[in-house]
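sry for the spam today, last one i promise. struct tokens for design, 424 residues
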């Protein structure tokens, strides 16, 4: 009997010990491209309930940790690369990484972009003649009087992203009359993006492919503008010298001077230009336009855009476009005075293809004819019926300072020309 009692007591104690075994949970960790979870590693691990586990996410070179996602309720700080997780259940978590964003705060930071032409960059403040590095990098005395050295070349294009966040780069000086691809950026590749940036009070002098913002771009230029003086020989525009990509929601003011393919916004457009305008005065010899000098070839489009500056040239001179060669122009207009010696048009100087639903002011331009488009007197150009009748996406508003962004175009009927809803 004693032995049986001892056996039963032992069995109960053993069962009690089994019943008190700690509860365990699995933790599965992994990382996205651009880094890895270095602590505890990337695998499935088992821990006792209540264990506080260290987490360390380590980014690769040129990348940064973004946040933890997944089962993150017990992670101490989801935005910290070094943190902890408390094991109260089975969890699967992911460390997210992204490209490291480089902050631009002065001219030296801006100049350093050329050391990594594929990175993402963000402008953190305005840059002008008082910012660090201006004298030696972007002034009239910089680089032996040549001023700023453009970012990106034909052999090594900028293929990253540059977000100006609405800030401005002012007082940029470039004097390189024998060099091509002159501008803040010299060459932008297909993957390159510049957005929300203004280049103000620029002086740019170059040879071919000359622009205040970009000399030659195959990428995207959006929500950007240029003011000042831009001078070159061929493919000259206040914002972009040559566009082989996308230009939209952008504008230019000031003066543009060149020999051929000279435009208020873009000198030579071979791709997409939309929702943009220019008030520049433009002077050239051939293929000279208030917005675009030459809109050239089959996939070249100009749409929902306008120009108001004066245009002076020799041949192929237009208030909006100098030459439209197998391209298209639609839902656009011009009002600036146009003068030249041959093949002059209030809207387009020379056209081989499509110009539709577009207008010019015969009174302010001084031109009664155009190789495409429809001429209207000033009163008609300020009448919404002219444009709504041509299927423009337009609405009348009471005041330019209170636009209706639901429409591409706004107009104060009877008082203003159409303006882009983002423009005011």
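last one done:
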């Amino acid at each position: 009997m004693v032995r049986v009692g001892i056996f039963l007591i032992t069995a109960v104690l053993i069962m009690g010990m089994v019943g008190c075994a700690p509860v365990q949970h699995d933790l599965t960790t992994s990382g996205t491209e651009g880094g890895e979870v270095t602590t505890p590693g990337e695998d499935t691990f088992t821990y006792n309930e209540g264990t506080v586990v260290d987490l360390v996410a380590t980014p690769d070179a040129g990348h940064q940790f973004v946040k933890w996602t997944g089962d993150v309720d017990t992670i101490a700080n989801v935005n910290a690369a070094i943190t902890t997780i408390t094991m109260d259940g089975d969890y699967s978590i992911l460390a997210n990484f992204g490209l490291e964003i480089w902050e631009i705060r002065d001219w030296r930071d801006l100049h350093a972009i050329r050391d990594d032409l594929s990175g993402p960059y963000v402008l953190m403040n305005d840059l002008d003649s008082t910012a660090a590095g201006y004298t030696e990098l972007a002034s009239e005395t910089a680089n032996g009087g040549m001023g700023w050295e453009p970012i990106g070349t034909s052999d090594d294009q900028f293929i990253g992203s540059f977000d100006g966040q609405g800030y401005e780069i002012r007082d940029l000086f470039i004097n390189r009359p024998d060099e091509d691809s002159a501008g803040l950026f010299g060459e932008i590749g297909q993957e390159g993006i510049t957005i929300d940036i203004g280049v103000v009070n620029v002086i740019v002098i170059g040879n071919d492919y000359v622009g205040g913002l970009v000399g030659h771009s195959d990428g995207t230029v959006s929500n950007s503008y240029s003011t000042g003086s831009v001078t070159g020989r061929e493919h000259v525009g206040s914002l972009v010298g040559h566009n082989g990509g996308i230009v939209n929601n952008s504008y230019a003011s000031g003066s543009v001077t060149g020999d051929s393919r000279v435009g208020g916004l873009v000198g030579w457009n071979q791709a997409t230009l939309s929702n943009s305008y220019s008030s520049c005065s433009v002077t050239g010899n051939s293929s000279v336009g208030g917005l675009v000098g030459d809109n050239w070839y089959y996939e070249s489009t100009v749409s929902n855009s306008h120009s108001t500056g004066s245009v002076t040239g020799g041949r192929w001179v237009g208030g909006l476009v100098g030459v439209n060669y197998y391209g298209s122009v639609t839902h656009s207009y011009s009002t600036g005075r146009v003068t030249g010696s041959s093949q002059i048009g209030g809207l387009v100087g020379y056209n081989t293809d499509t110009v539709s639903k577009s207008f010019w002011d015969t009174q302010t331009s001084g031109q009664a004819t155009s190789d495409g488009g429809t001429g209207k007197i000033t009163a008609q150009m300020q009448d919404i019926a002219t444009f709504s009748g041509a299927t423009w996406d337009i609405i009348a508003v009471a005041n330019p300072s209170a636009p209706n962004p639901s429409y591409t175009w706004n107009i104060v009927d009877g008082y203003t020309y159409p303006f882009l809803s983002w423009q005011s």
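The CA atoms of residues 31 and 95 lie 4 Å apart. ok im logging off now
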